[in-house]
Each structure stands twice: as C-alpha cells, then as structure tokens.
Amino acid sequence: MSETPVPIPSGSVPAGTPAWSSTDAALWAGAGPASWARPMWSVLALLITVVWAIAVEPVPSCSDAAPCGPDWGGMAEVGLAVGLLYWLARLPELTLIAAPALAAMVAWGELVPGADRMFQVANFAVIGALAFGWAAARERLAARSGQRRLVERAAGVRHRLPEPASPLVRGRLPLAAGLVLCAVAAGAVLLGLSGIRADERHADRAAHITATVIRRGEETVRVRTDDERRFTVDAFYPEDYGVGSTVTVLEDGSWRRLVAEPYDAFGWQLLVLAAGLPGLSFLTVGVLAHRRAVALRRAPVPALRVLDRTDYEGRTWVYAADDTAGQTALFTCLCTATLPDDDELVDRIEDEAEDEEEFPVDTRLHEAVLLGAPYEGGELVLVTTDRAGDPIVIRTAGPVRLPRTGKKPLLEATALADTDPDTSDPQRRVRIDRIAATLAPTGRPVRWGPGPVARTAGLALTAGVAAGVSFTAHSLATDGFHWHLLLPLLALPIWIRFAAVLLNWRATADSTGLWLAGAWTVRHVPWERLRAAEYTDEGSVEIRRSDGGTWHLTGLGEPRLERRLRLRPSYVRMAEEVTALHAHPELRPAEPSPPSDHGLPLGPVLLLLVGLAVTAVLIT
To answer: Exposure pattern of 255-281 as b/e (b: 16+ CB <10 Å)?
Structure first.
C-alpha cells in the first residue's frame, strides 16, 4: 500500500539532482556480490579445513636431535587463520593480503616431502579454502566498484556536502585502540626475542651433562647424573621423557634446562595474538572509515533523490524515489543527526514539543537526498526531513549494510508504549511534578557529573589499577607468562571503564536533547527519542530511548545506604531531573550546548596511559 512521503523543501535539494528510480536501483542491487561470495561460505570452508589440518598434524617429540623451540612461523599461521575468520566476514580489504600470506606459509612450511598423506591433503584443503575466500573477497570489492559506477551514472551530477554535515569524524577511536594494542603486541615480540637471546647466551656458556630420568612431574622431570647428583629440571613436555631414558641437561651456575627444550616464548606469543589481532583489525577499520569520511568531503559526490525511514531499532532504511510503498529496502545503516544553527533548532524543538509524547519515533517515509555512492561498508550523508517536515542532515554512524533476506524495518512499538514508566504510575507522575516544581527554566544548558566522593573513589581505583598493572607487567618481564596472570589482564577493561565513569561521567541537557558521556563514547539522545531516565535498585542509571536502546552508568551507588543516610547523589538527581524535563518541555533549556560541555570519555585516555606504563615497566 502506497503512502505519501513527507516532502523535502525544494531549497534543500541541490539543483539538477535526479530521482533514483526503481529501475536504476534494481540494477544497483543486481550488481551486488554473487551468492557464492557470501562471507558465511568462506568462513565455514576455512574453519572446517583448519580444524581438519590441526587434527591430523603430526606432533613430533622433543629430543636432543630435534629440540622443541619457539615457533614464530606457527604463531603467525595461527594468528592469520584466526584473524581471517573475522576478516573474511567484515574486512575483505585485509583478506586480500592475509589470505595469500597464509597460503604461502602453509605451502612453504607444511607441504614437505615425506609428510603424512592425510596431512598433505588437509593442507591442500586449507590452501583451497584460502583461495576461495580470496576470490570471494575480490568479488565483494569488485561489486562495490560496480555499484559505485552505477550510482555515478544514475546521478550524472555531483555536489559538495552541505555545511551542517561537517565535520565527518570517523575512525578515531578504532585507530587509537588499534595503535595501543599493536604497541602491546610489538612489546611482547621484543620481550619474547629478548628471552630467546638470554637463553642462547646461557646455552653457549653451559656445560652439557648426561642424566637419567628417575621421575616425572606435571611440568618437571627429576634426573640423576653420572656423578649421582639429583635435581629437578623444568619440562614443558615431560611425557616425552620416559623414566629410565637418558637426557642432556645444560647447566650454567644455577641455570638449568634440557637440551631438547630451549626457551619457549609461548606466553609472549599468546599475548602477541591476543593484542595484535584485534589491534590490526581496529587499525584497518579506523583507516578505512577515516578515508571514506574524508573522501566525502574532499570533492563533490554523486547526489540522488531517494526515500528513507527510521524504524524503532534506530536504523535508517533507504528506498528508491518511486517506491512509495516502502517494499524494497536498498540498504540500511545507523545514522546520527548533524545539528544546524541554534535559532533554527530552537524553533524546531518548540514546534515539536506538543507532539513529542504522541509520536516518539517517526517511521513514515521521507523524501531525502542521498550524497555519496552507497555500497556495503561505505559512508554516506542524507539530507532528509524531521517529523515537522524541516530539513535536517544526517550522516552514517556505522557502515552501510545490505539487508538480509526477509529482514524488514521494525515499524511497531506497542510494547514500548504500553510500558512507558512515565505514564503508567500515577504516584510517579506526582513525584515527577514535584521535582519539576523545584526547577527554574533558565534557558541555559544543565549539566550533571560526579561529585567529590565519586572522583576520590575514581582516583583511588585508578591508582589501584596502575599498581596492579605494574605488578603484572613486572611479573611478565621477570618470570614470563603464567596463566594466573591472565585473569587480571582480562579484567583490566572492566576496571578501566569503572574508573573512567567514576572520574568523569557527564550528562548535559540542552535544547537538542541529552549529551551522555560514559567511559568510551559521548552519545546524543534527542528529546523526541528519550523514553525514560531511571535510577535502578542495583545502583545504576539507565537512560532509555524510544527505539529500544539504553545508555547505562553501572554500579555508581548503593540505593539502600543512600536512603538510610538520606543522600541524594548527583546521579540520582540527574535521573530525577531529566525525567522532569522529559515530562515538562517548557522547563528544558532553550540553548544548545558547546562541544566542550558534552564531556570527555576517559576510557581511551586511561587505556593509553596504562599501555604507556606497561611499556615503561617492560623496557626498564
């Protein structure tokens, strides 16, 4: 059934911008990657063949003639195989480099004369899976190029982005995270190589002692030398040395090891993989996002008239200009609004205030202008209209995605409306009105943040985290990797997040809505999409949106203790006053807030400082 889209003012449409017809849009959709190039097939093929190759791979025993040692080539193979399981699905650009590299390593290191026939077949299968994945990634990238050419041909004109769309800042956080993780991985490589060199220096000076194994432990062997001395030597593979067998021990003062087991940098190699794989992925994502965002601003881009709508999941769906029934979505993406000048925005908020409760989300089709060439993973800008029909500029906050078969926008939100806590409880309404009576409309933005107690706790926690990280780093540098150190490393992001929230959480209410600064990001919730603000019984603050999303400040307080001591911390006051502003639009600030008032997420800063501290400890 057709519907009448919300029209866009003619002044917001660049001159000569054509409509993207269903015919041209069908050609664009048909130019997408072939069905065989779907990432699922490549990932399954690689996963099955790699598991097969690992299962049939012969495991040689350690011996004096063939010592076990650090296998950097094997580590690289494992890292590339694990990374490709993600890169095949999300980063075909990186797949084009990683897949041939892994295939060459498999062919060079594994396909040797005399190897087991089953093992050779399994490795040939791995190489075949890599070739298939490479071809699929190449097909997806070629399809993107073809779709860009079709859009340029259909548009015929190019225009620069409207001013409110700038700046397009994408990729900064992934780049920062990727650099920190890659620095940790590089440090782990250096420490692993340093351990190997130290072991080699000891081995050059050591005396060779022949001994007999008299007992085996879990990670040790007990030996007896020809002169009847008995001592215990560390062994990673004690099962390789039978009781009564002869081994050679290297001895340099108090330093001893088996000739068959040189220093194994496995712990450092594990840290290289744990930090390097996500670090490389973050770096690639950040570089690609930044390049695509910059390309939108560098020169005029194709422009087409389309239709768009936003669903209750917060996703924007784009349709051909003549698809007024909204039957065939071309692509979907997460978008964020770029706010215009102050006076225009204030007038718009005032006009929409009366209708805010009745229409929490506008799911109607809207006429829009698409700026940029859409393709999977791309960056775009849309000039569209809001609920009142006024022009707004939105840009992609995440990569463009092609909709899955059968996937439709969520256009119903009955469950959300029926459980709105602001209207279902009369006592709550009275309490909200009482809080609203204490608020005086000043027109200026309102800010909430941590109090002195929270900041003190945050500083103490940061100091504790720094001390714990320094101790862990020192243990890694002196004693090597041990599994009991893994838990603190895994819990580090949790403690950093908690410390960042205690130190610098921020909520700012202005004429446009709420600006919410947590540990890692700053999020904006327009007033028309705010559903509720609540302080929970678990001591957390939840800001809920009408599209189902929720912003959390977790574990800030202890409600029972606060009630007993009759305390009203800043986060409790924030939740109550935001609820009052939501229910009483006349009390909201009339001015937008400057970016400096939106808060600074300290999570990336603390993570960078921790990375620098770890590097300093390891170097010294």
So the answer is: ebbbbbbbbbbebbbbbbbbbbbbbbb
H/E stretch holding 222 reads strand 220-225
**377: which DSSP letter?**
T
Three-state DSSP state, 587: helix
Give yes or no for residue 478 having a pLDDT over 70: no
**Between 92-109 and 266-298, two packed helices, what is the crossing angle to 10 degrees?**
150
Q: Which DSSP helix (H) or strand (E) runs through 306? A: strand 301-310
Burial annotation 115-142 (CB, 10 A radius, 16+ → b, else e): eeeebbebbbbbbebbebbbebbbbbbe
Instruction: Count CA atoms closer than 13 A to 551's CA, side-chain side.
Output: 25
Total number of residues shown for the chain: 620
Distance (Å) of CA 33 to CA 36, 142, 238, 401: 8, 8, 52, 13
Distances (CA, A) of 615 to 184, 188, 380, 526, 602: 7, 10, 39, 42, 20
Residue-wise pLDDT tens digits, 178-225: 999 999 999 999 998 998 898 889 888 999 899 998 988 877 889 999
Q: HSE, CB side, 13 Å, CA atoms: give it for residue 156.
A: 9
Per the listing, tokens 């009847």 go with: 228
- What 8-state DSSP symbol labels residue 519? S
What integer is the mean pLDDT of 137-163?
92
Q: Write down the residue that tokens 């892994």 correspond to.
A: 102
Residue 383 has pLDDT above 90, yes or no: yes
The alpha carbon of 43 is separated from its chain's Cα centroid by a whole number of angstroms, namely 20
- Give the residue among 66, 615, 5, 39 at the shortest CA–CA distance from 376: 39
Range of 194-203, 339-348, 456-465, 556-565 with top mean pLDDT? 194-203
Q: What one-character-per-residue DSSP string does 230-247 give?
A: EEEEE-S-GGGS-TT-EE
Helix (H) / strand (E) containing 99 = helix 92-109
Helix (H, G, I), strand (E, B) or coil at 105: helix
Residues 446, 508 contacting (CB under 8 angstroms): yes
Short-list 3, 20, 6, 4, CA closest to 384: 6
Specify the residue for token string 């027109």.
443
C-alpha–C-alpha distance, residues 542 and 460, integer Å: 25
Q: Which residues face 316 on adjacent strands?
A: 310, 333
At 350 the pLDDT is: 44
- Rg (alpha carbons) of the chain, rounded to whole number: 31
**315 and 400 in contact (C-beta within 8 Å)?**
no
The CA–CA distances, whole Å, from 320 to 12, 27, 305, 596 equal 18, 12, 8, 39
Query: Six-digit token pair at 537?
Result: 């019984």
In percent, the amount of the chain with pLDDT more than 90 equals 28
Q: Which residues contact 259 (CB under 8 A, 6 or more apart)?
A: 64, 67, 208, 247, 248, 249, 250
Rounded Cα distance, 508 and 581, in Å = 12
Please say whether the beta carbons of 547 and 335 come within 8 A: no
CA distance 544 to 359: 16
Q: What is the 8-class DSSP label of residue 448?
A: E
pTM value?
0.65
Query: How far apart, in whole angstroms, are the C-alpha atoms of residue 461 and residue 502?
Result: 9
**What residues form DSSP beta bridges with 516?**
507, 523
Tell me the three state secondary structure of residue 513: strand
H helix runs in 113-265, sequence order: 117-155, 172-205
| Token couple for 37 | 């190039």
